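Q: I'm writing a short explainer about Ion transport domain-containing protein for a general audience and would like to include a description of its predicted shape. Could you first generate the structure from this sequence?
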Amino acid sequence: TKGKGKKMVVISVQHPDGIHQIVCIIGRLIVLAGAILKGKSEIREMTNVGIRKYFQATGAAFLENCLSCSFCCGIIIVNILHLLDIQAQTIVLALVSIIGWGYMLFFVMAFQLTGPFVFMIYEMLFHDVLRFCIIYMVFLAGFSQAFFVLFNNNGFGGFLVSIKQCFFGMLGDFDLDHYTGTSFQYISVSLLVIYVVVVSILLLNLLIAMMGDTYGNVIEGATQIWHLERARIIFAIENEMSTDERKLDKNKYWTNVDGQRYLQVEEVDKDCFRDINNDDENYDKDKKRRT
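A: Of course. Here's the predicted structure. Afterward I'll give you a sentence or two in plain language.
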């Protein structure tokens, strides 16, 4: 029980039964085995292409490499912390859950319907948002320190409070009474107005404009980008395959594209590859000579 009188609450703790525990253990073992097998394939890929090229990949390959390594390492760490009964496993498991579902983006990039959209998000995060965060950190640190001095907050905790207030101010959630309750209220309010104009109006709209440009560039070459990312996905899967898997007869000549089997040809001599028009012209010339 907790509380007294009408506020008393009865709390009952139900321990999991044997079947529930068995299912949880089996599920943990399956996930752990999958992470170990996936980690083994990633190590094989590192061996085939080299560690430097492995992490220097771009597009879908870079996304797959980073998420795969993070997910496999996270699952192993979670199980180790679980065996040691350390509460930090909850935090790691929460982060691994996001990474695991984020790994699904690698598979949807292969489809023409969703591939350009995922690539668009990737470009915005690693280019537009990254540049915005770098510039915003300068203004955030400067105005946070200014409010920290004006409010006469003591200690590192007071500086963190100033950072929190400035961050909420960027989102438009600020308490004006908090800035007027000081001996230098005119200065603090003036700095708040300048901060809102520069960050909330200027920088945020600049970020939206950059995202608009990125959207236009991606949509303009959506088909080419989709083919490029699809090729990167094929190379990423191929690098994870063992030598025996590559030598299988079913993987030797054909490949699946939209559920259809297509013959794949390796270019050995460029002079031997001629377009259809040239072949037709040569065929007509040879036919005339014979007649």
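A: For your explainer, you could say: The mean pLDDT is 78.
Q: Perfect, that's easy to follow.
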